Amino acid sequence: MRTLDDLLSVGVAGRRVLVRCDLNVPLGAGEHDRREVTDDGRIRAALPVLEKLLDAGARVIVVTHLGRPRTLFGQGAPDPEYGLSPVADRLARLLGRPVTAALDTVGESARLLADELGDGEVLLLENVRFNPGETSKDDAERLEFARELAELTGGEDGGGAFVENAFGAVHRKHASVYDVATLLPHYVGDLVRDELDVLGRLTGEPARPYVVVLGGSKVSDKLAVIEALLPSVDRLLVGGGMCFTFLAAQGHDVGDSLLERDQIDNCRRFLAEAGDKIVLPTDVVVAEDVAEDVPAETVPADAIPGGGKGLDIGPDSVRLFAEALSGARTVFWNGPMGVFEISTFAAGTKGVAEAVAAVDGLSVVGGGDSAAAVRALGLDENAFGHISTGGGASLEYLEGKDLPGVSVLETV
C-alpha cells in the first residue's frame, strides 16, 4: 500500500486531497440547547494526518459520516440532528485553523467551496450518509456517487488524491471508503496504518500470556471473534451483558439479566472446548432497573435473584480478572463490563480498564464503547499501548474477514 509519506514525498501543495476520516462522534445538548461534541476522541485521532497535509500546502476535503441518519418528511430529506456543524466547530478548535463546512455532500455548496479552497485550507463536507449513494447496495449507484466525490478534487488529471484515514469505516463497502479509491490515486493514512500494524501483532505471534477481555451486551455480536480467538488465547475473560448467557449455559438462573437464549448452546460449546481458558464473573452487581440512584446489591454470579438485572461485574470478579491480567504480555480488550455510563454500574469497567492499563506488555483497547469508557471514566489514555478507533473494524480484522476499505488500497 502507498502511504501518506509517499504522497507527501511527491508534493501536495496546491492539490486537492480527499481524506476519509471517522468523525462519527457522540453529540449532546450544550449551551442554549445547541448540539455539541461530548467525546472528541475520534476527532483528535484524525488530527495528525490532517495537519501533515495542511502544513504541506494541500487543499484538504474531509469526508465523514455521523450516525445512521433518519429521514424527515419522506425519502431523501436528511434529519438535521445528524448534521456536521458541531463537528466542524470542534475540528476547527482542535486544528487551530478555520474549517469551512459545506451545506451538502456533492451539491452546489460542496462544489463551490471545493473550487475556492486555498493552500493549507480545509473543507468539511456534510454527512456523507445523507446521500443514498454512500451506502447503496447497487454498485453502479455507489460508484456514481464516488465519482462526484472524486470530482471535487479535480480528479486524477487535476492532481486529486484520496487518503483513507477512517479505520472505523474500512469494514464497510461504502462509496467514500471503497469506490472512491478506485477512481483516484489512493494512500493509507497513518491512523489506518498504525491500526493494521497493531492488530497484525495480535494475529501473528503475540507475546504470551495472551489474554482477551470481552464485554458488551450480546454474545451474538462477539460470536465470530470468540470462534477466531479461542484457539490462540491463553485466557478469555468474559464480562458485560454477554456473560449472563454464559452463566445460563452453566445452568445458573440469571434473573432478568440480558439473556440470548438462542446462544446458550454456543456458549455451552465454547465452555466445553475451552476448558479453563474462559473466565467468568464470580459476582455481579444487580438492580431492578437501569437508572441513576437505583438501589443495587452485589450477589454471587450463581445466585442472581428473580427480578434482578445484572448490570456490572462485582469487586471479586474485578480482582479475579486483574489477577489473570497481571502476568499477561499481550492484552486485547473489547466491550465494557457493565453499564459504565451510570456511576452505580461503572466500577467493574473501571477496575478492569485499570488492570489492562497496568499490563507490562502490549495492551490494546478495541475501540467502540471500550474507548469511550476509557475517556468517560477519566482514565489516562497514554497508559494503554493502543486505543483503536474502530470497534467493529477491529473485531472483523481479528475474525479474519476481508476489510474492503483496506483491500482496495492494496491495488495500484
What best-fitting shape do the alpha-carbon axes yield? elongated
Main pleated sheet: 6 strands, parallel
- Which CATH-level-2 architecture of the largest domain? 3-Layer(aba) Sandwich
Overall average residue pLDDT: 94
CATH fold description of the largest domain:
Rossmann fold
Q: What would you call the structural class? A: alpha/beta
Any idea what the radius of gyration is? 23 Å
The number of domains is: 2
Strand content: 15-25%
Number of DSSP strand runs: 17
Task: Please list the strands of the largest sheet in the order they lie side by side.
Answer: 5-6-4-1-7-8
| Total helical segments | 14
Distance between the termini: 8 Å
Question: Can you tell me the CATH class of the largest domain?
Answer: Alpha Beta
Outline the low-pLDDT stretches: none
How much helicity do the residues have?
A: 25-40%
Tell me about this structure.
This protein has a six-stranded parallel beta sheet, with helices on both faces. It has a six-stranded parallel beta sheet with strand order 11-10-9-15-16-17, sandwiched between helices. It has 14 helices and 17 strands. The longest helix has 15 residues, at 41-55. 34% of the residues lie in helices and 16% in strands. The relative contact order is 0.12. The protein folds into two domains: 4-192, Phosphoglycerate kinase, N-terminal domain (Rossmann fold, 3-Layer(aba) Sandwich); 205-398, Phosphoglycerate kinase, N-terminal domain (Rossmann fold, 3-Layer(aba) Sandwich), CATH 3.40.50.
